[in-house]
Write a structure and sequence with these properties.
Length: about 325
């Protein structure tokens, strides 16, 4: 208990991504660029989904929820990471670490549920197209979104609170670049078997079970797509589902590796890389591989710029160039 009190007064030291200080400036530049790209891509999706009436559909409602989640998810860790990479101070206050622990786990669990909801939306749209508008009404969409956000919050409150009860015995050096449950469990000096069992049980539900539901739903979707007679219809449905599956595999693959595999089976550097992947890379590539290559979104952006008469002005050339460069980067990633 004395160790716990000491940590609460002094805070923690985040050891960062790499043991080589000379690489910190490179990591700083790459992560800063990725963060700015994340802000731009996800903000664009949210803006277009709100302003363009043609995008007022369940699919884009859930996409805007995913973009809002990714913005908050990456912002909960990246700014602190950039501060630690830029200067010699690697500390984080106890309160900051606790907030990061709760928020990061909340949003991560929420994304697990939200991706299941999005798979369900695609299942209804492709397998039950005649009933899609009636079934996926606004009330149900808001209910499903609320279940995702509140379900993730409940998971975070339980796991984070349980983790913070562990004795730290004065240990302050977190061998990671953020405060998350696996890193905090490794920091504890007492018996952590119960915490690891709870972590594995909850994460199995939020990752392995959720991923199984998504894959089963896409088996039914694939059967329905193959029955579509129109070549253009099959291609559109296939492209939409393929993009969603790429997002699912990126997120769930890294989350399962980081949370379900025993800590002793992987090196600490591998754990840091996986944490960096799902906290920085995944929020960045989500809008790129899922939405910004979508003709409806690009059309909505052109209509928005046209309404504001920016296509003929100097300001528009900057905005349009940013969008084209983002779209080119998306093509490079998927290619």
């Amino acid at each position: 208990m004395e160790g716990t009190n000491d940590s609460s007064l002094e805070g923690f030291i985040l050891l960062g991504i790499s043991d080589h200080p000379q690489l910190e400036i490179i990591f700083f530049i790459v992560i800063l660029f990725s963060y700015l790209l994340t802000l731009f891509g996800n903000s664009t999706i949210i803006l277009l989904s709100c302003l363009d009436a043609r995008l007022h559909t369940p699919m884009y409602f859930f996409l805007s929820n995913l973009s809002s989640l990714d913005l908050t998810f990456t912002t909960s860790s990246v700014p602190q990471m950039l501060i630690n990479l830029w200067g010699p101070d690697k500390t984080i206050s106890y309160g900051g670490c606790v907030i990061q622990l709760y928020v990061f786990l909340w949003l991560g669990a929420t994304e697990c549920i939200l991706l299941v909801v999005m798979a369900f939306d695609r299942y209804v749209a492709i397998c039950r197209p005649l009933h899609y508008t009636t079934f996926m009404n606004p009330w149900l969409c808001w209910l499903l979104a609320a279940i995702a956000w509140l379900g993730g919050l409940g998971n975070s409150v339980i796991q984070s609170t349980f983790t913070l009860q562990l004795p730290l015995c004065g240990h302050r050096r977190v061998d990671n670049f953020l405060c998350e449950v696996p890193a905090m469990i490794k920091l504890a000096c007492g018996d952590t078997s119960l915490n690891e069992a709870v972590l594995n049980g909850v994460c199995t539900f939020f990752t392995a079970v959720a991923l199984s539901i998504i894959l089963i739903s896409y088996c039914y979707i694939a059967q329905a797509v193959l029955k579509i007679r129109s070549v253009e219809g099959r291609r559109k449905a296939f492209n939409t589902c393929l993009s969603h599956l790429m997002v699912v595999l990126f997120f769930y693959g890294s989350a399962i590796y980081g949370y379900l595999l025993p800590a002793k089976t992987s090196s600490q550097d591998q754990g840091k890389f996986i944490s960096l992947f799902y906290s920085v890379v995944t929020p960045m590539v989500n809008p790129l591989i899922y939405t910004l290559r979508n003709k409806e979104v690009k059309g909505a952006l052109r209509r928005l710029l046209g309404k504001r008469s920016l296509l003929r002005g100097g300001k528009n050339s900057i905005i349009y160039s940013l969008f084209i460069s983002t779209h080119f980067f998306s093509f490079s990633l998927s290619g």
